[in-house]
């Protein structure tokens, strides 16, 4: 009996020594399968607090994602009064998104969550970072649910809200002090931009907008490839080539591609079929604007703006172009986009103005 027990104990020690070998040894190392600690019950969302989802570890305002919450970046970012954004995606274990086409949002599974936090750096007087809001889009029973959380002054928590509110901040940006009265949108305002014939759709996560390299924890990888490797994207559905936008701020890119990319992320969700502004002739989706007429080039202007402007875009004449007037204005009755900004985006205005003035007058 003692001999048999000794043999059994020896066998256990041998197995333990095998499983404790370093990665350089020839034995296969046994590791537990990682499980995402995210808490998501589709029957009870939205939760009252952002922390209830457990998307982040440590100090929540550091936005350090837990396992399973992948950061990603939109190539050409949306302008919201100079706020910065960090975006993440999470999906339930075993589920994945699939490709539809280059310019459409990926087909996400039920339970998928898109996480966007807007914040400011260099907030005066101490040049600190201030979290403002975290927006969630949750896929539930085949439809997206809009959920918004406002960060508290202590920067320790964000609380669920459906009401609009303003958060005043002063920031230092390129040695210039900017006073921002940041608008957290109400539910109805969120719905206006995300509405496609009474169905909510995300704006950013289209293959054309995320087909670029990103610095992940394990190295720099193409984002679509990383999603596929992690199990969040069906790689068999991806084409070899994707027609993608460019970073509108990248001056090494052609001017027209920068403008088309800028208008796509800032304007296309409303100026599209089934969008809030579908009644207008403009179609600003990147796949539509290779034809400049879809941006209004040479198209006569027919809306009352309080001044005479002959065309939506008058080639070579930015001061006679309604589009430039509207993206320059900060008046509610004129400004475009109508939701999402209170300040003029000086860099965006300069980009559009430069492009319009570079166009030849086609006499249309």
From TrEMBL:
* Key words, A-Z: Signal
Q: Where does the source fall among the domains of life?
A: Bacteria
Signal sequence, renumbered to the chain: 1-22
Indicate yes or no for the key word Signal: yes
Determine if Signal is one of this entry's keywords.
yes
- This one is known as Repeat protein (TIGR03806 family)
């Amino acid at each position: 009996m003692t001999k048999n027990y000794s043999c059994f104990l020896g066998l256990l020690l041998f197995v333990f020594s095998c499983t404790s070998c370093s990665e350089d040894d020839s034995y296969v190392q046994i590791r537990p399968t990682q499980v995402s600690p995210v808490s998501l019950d589709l029957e009870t969302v939205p939760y009252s607090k952002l922390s209830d989802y457990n998307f982040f570890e440590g100090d929540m305002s550091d936005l350090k994602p837990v396992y399973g919450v992948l950061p990603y970046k939109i190539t050409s970012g949306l302008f919201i009064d100079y706020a910065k954004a960090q975006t993440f995606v999470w999906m339930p274990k075993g589920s994945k998104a699939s490709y539809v086409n280059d310019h459409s949002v990926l087909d996400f599974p039920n339970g998928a969550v898109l996480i966007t936090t807007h914040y400011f750096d260099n907030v005066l007087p101490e040049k600190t970072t201030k979290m403002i809001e975290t927006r969630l889009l949750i896929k539930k029973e085949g439809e997206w649910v809009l959920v918004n959380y406002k960060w508290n002054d202590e920067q320790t928590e964000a609380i669920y809200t459906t009401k609009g509110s303003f958060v005043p901040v002063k920031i230092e940006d390129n040695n210039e002090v900017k006073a921002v009265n940041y608008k957290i949108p109400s539910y109805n305002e969120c719905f206006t931009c995300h509405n496609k014939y009474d169905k909510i759709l995300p704006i950013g996560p289209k293959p054309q907008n995320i087909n670029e390299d990103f610095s992940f924890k394990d190295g720099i990888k193409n984002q679509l490839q990383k999603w596929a490797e992690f199990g969040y994207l069906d790689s068999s559905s991806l084409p070899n080539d994707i027609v993608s936008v460019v970073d509108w701020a990248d001056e090494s890119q052609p001017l027209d591609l920068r403008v088309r990319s800028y208008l796509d992320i800032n304007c296309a969700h409303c100026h599209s079929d089934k969008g809030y502004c579908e009644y207008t002739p403009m179609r600003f989706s990147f796949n539509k604007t290779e034809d400049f007429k879809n941006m209004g080039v040479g198209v006569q202007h027919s809306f009352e703006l309080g001044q005479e402007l002959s065309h939506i875009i008058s080639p070579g004449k930015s001061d006679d172009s309604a589009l430039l007037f509207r993206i320059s204005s900060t008046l509610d009755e004129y400004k475009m986009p109508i939701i999402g900004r209170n300040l003029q985006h000086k860099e965006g205005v300069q980009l559009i103005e430069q492009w319009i003035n570079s166009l030849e007058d086609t006499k249309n």
